[in-house]
Amino acid sequence: MEQPTDDCEGAVAQQLDQEQESLGTLIDHLEIVVTEAEKRTNGALNIREFYTVYLVETKLLKGSKWPNSRELSSLWRRYSQFEMLKLYLENMYPFVVCPCLPEKKSVYSWNAATNSSDTFDPDFVDRRRAGLETFLIRVASHPIICRDVVLLMFLQQNEGWQDKLKDYGAHSEIMPWDLLLPSRLKNPDKRFEVYHKYGSDLHLNISSTLKLRSKALEKQYCLHKLHANYGRVFSEWSAIEKEMGDGLQRAGHYMDSYASCIDSTLEEEELVADQLKEYLYLANSLQSVCRKQQIMQLNLERAMAVVDSKNIEKQRIQQGKSSLMSRLFGAVDSEEIREAKLEELEHKITQENNSVIVAQADLNKFTMNALEDIQRFQNQKNQDLKETIRAFATLQVKASRKNLTVWTHMRDCLTSIP
Amino acid sequence: MEQPTDDCEGAVAQQLHQEEESLGTLIDHLEIVVTEAEKRTNGALNIREFYTVYLVETKLLKGSKWPNARELSSLWRRYSQFEMLRLYLENMYPFVVCPCLPEKKSVYSWNAATNSSDTFDPDFVDRRRAGLETFLIRVASHPVISRDAVLLMFLQQNEGWQDKLKDYAGYITKAESKLKSLSLPSRLKNPDKRFEVCHKYGSDLHLNISSTLKLRSKALEKQYCLHKLHANYGRVFSEWSAIEKEMGDGLQRAGHYMDSYASCIDSTLEEEELVADQLKEYLYLANSLQSVCRKQQIMQLNLERAMAVVDSKNIEKQRIQQGKSSLMSRLFGAVDSEEIREAKLEELEHKITQENNSVTVAQADLNKFTMNALEDIQRFQNQKNQDLKETIRAFATLQVKASRKNLTVWTHMRDCLTSIP
């Protein structure tokens, strides 16, 4: 096994280089489904700890030549394990706008009931199951990430993938990603500044939309349920009427019908909202890539600053200017000592120059890969969000049609009574 | 002019008795419209008092033989004058479930704006105009009330109808005070079950309608907020489209449809107000019905009191005849002489005869009232069944229309978005 290098492409990816072009992505070869969810428990008798596991099943498509892949697999994974996988991928492929997991807790929900922190609520669990499947499919569709060996092991091997993570453990410390302000950059890359701002604006717009959606749903729900009260009042009223009683009873039934037709609409709507939420988190992912570029640039600029300062020092020694200390106390370096210092300095300067060259190369490669992936992300986003808005409109059409149907039936029923 | 009697049918109605059957009701002969409303002012320079007047126009249909009717008329009336007319009619024809005026102030309105006491708000004034027209038409459609001379004068003569009211003023005060000095039906010895049932029905009807109106308010308020919320979507989508290159177009269009959705509620709410007014009319008619029932109970109470008086006088007569004297005499020992006893008896007999006559008259009045009232309550029930069925149908039709509008907006939005590649 090759020693993991600091190469952004990842060790394993190089192995597949030649076959890469013709192979396509993992998803073209492997069917991935997250079929079920189950509640498990561990811990002693008194301290029962519950958690949910999800069944990840894969099946290799006929005639597929994906290296190291099994034909069938079926294993249980916890949400926290998915989180580990994502963290690994983010660090292994820092220039990629990494696909996101479904939310840990329900945000922007439209009523108190779904807003609870109950991660065992069946609806929440099911939406999470769907979100995890989406995550795996997205990851397996990514031209670069999908070739990752650890990913394949996560999907197909029960044990062992976590050990592999430890091999790459050192990697995550190499780049201190959680740093600093781009304002300290001398030459910030405008392209990444623009993308960072875009990510932030996108996040803002989506979260505004989700907040509005919550309010709208809440009002829609109340409006529909109110009609159940109409049903009750009409029912009571029909009791005191002789001739009108029949008409009132029927009207009351249609009111109840209207009250209940909102429920399935809301369930379907939750799925549309989940699509929006995915991009809320992807916007963060995008900003994260931009920040990494800025950090790399910062490191480069620092390395360059070190080289500059050492060059200045060298110049000073060459021109015979001594350090402040020497001037104060009168000692002057002998010719030998000066030569020795110069040589040491030259050696360091050469080292630092190499570091700068390497850092510059890394930065260029990162920039190129990142810009390419951001483009991929933008294309995917345009396609997905257009689809999401269409789905939203289609859902509204469906709901309106349901409403129209109930009222039409009510009107026709009442008109038919003499 | 005949002296107004306590006759339930009203003096003038008697005049038309013979021609009545073939004549039909006033509305068959006279077209009545309340066309406009105008704001007037009176009072000194400093103390400006504003009020609204409504233009009442009538036109006699061709070949009509309605007595004393003019061919055309056009005059201005205030709401308070309508109130006077109604009060007169209520008291003149107490057995009638009297048609009602539109509300004095907006009740059960669904938002603070329409709930204000602003009786000069143009929408409120227009709905009141329509309500006043409905009132006049209903009154003119009533087989008994439509024949009233004062009603005709109110519709067609600018002055003079109010003087006629003064003739009946004392009558009205008496009737009002009877109503006010009310007693509970529980004091009746033989309450008429039919009227108790009708009274309860009126009370239940009022309750059900007011519950419906309250629900309606809440529903409208939520519908309004829901629609207007979508204008915010429009705003967010507009801002969002500014940062997108390829998606921008789609977002812009979606935003426009959101604005469209936000505004399509307005006309629905206006139309809905008219349906609600129909319901409100029956809210007040339910009170009218209860009022008729109470009048019957009062008449019965008076009859039972008169009968009680007769009974007590008869008992007194018996006692005198049997020689028993009053408590006072027994205490102080004085005993009436034969002459005094005879005199007392004669006086008592005279009174008893008087009281018996009163009872007979009261009984006759009650019977006539009961008969007329039951007939009018039946008329009311038939009208109500017809009207309220129509109201509920109108409500359903309005919902269909509103749903269709919503569906249209969303369908356009979806089609528009689907057509963008």
TrEMBL record, chain A:
Residue ranges of domain PX in the record: 32-161
MF terms in GO: phosphatidylinositol-3-phosphate binding
Keyword Endoplasmic reticulum tagged: no
GO biological process: positive regulation of autophagosome assembly; protein transport
GO cellular component terms, A-Z: early endosome membrane; plasma membrane; SNARE complex
Keywords: Coiled coil
InterPro entries: AH/BAR_dom_sf (IPR027267), PX_dom (IPR001683), PX_dom_sf (IPR036871), SNX4 (IPR034783)
Protein name from the UniProt record: PX domain-containing protein
Organism name: Cloeon dipterum
